[in-house]
Amino acid sequence: MEYDPYDIAHVGKIIEIQGEEARVDFNGIIRSVKISLVNAKVGDYVLVHAGYAIKVLNAEEVEEDLKNKLKSLLSD
Questions:
Q1: CB 49 within 8 A of CB 12
Q2: Fewer CB within 10 Å of terminal CB in the chain, N or C?
Q3: Gap between the Cα atoms of 8 and 4, Å rounded
Q4: Domains of the chain by range and CATH?
Q5: Cβ distance 32 to 21 under 8 Å?
Q6: How far apart are CA 74 and CA 43, in angstroms?
Q7: Residue 26 to residues 65, 66: CA-CA distances in angstroms?
Q8: CA dist., res. 75 & res. 67, Å (int)
Q9: Which pLDDT tens digit goes with each residue over 14-68?
């Protein structure tokens, strides 16, 4: 898969929240993310940039992200 310089935000699922930080699962890679910019809860999918959740995604947005990633993998 080629590096895409414009792909600077990633989708992950919140698995735990402690204060203004969450543990987010990015396809098996768990990272701490600041969630002070959004109103998120455990189980939500969020768009993350530079360590901050910048948007809570709805089901359609998550599905579109997955389709785009799959399409990218299959085209390589």
A1: no
A2: C
A3: 8
A4: 10-75 (2.30.30.140)
A5: yes
A6: 28
A7: 12, 12
A8: 12
A9: 999 999 999 999 989 999 999 999 999 999 999 999 999 999 999 999 999 889 8
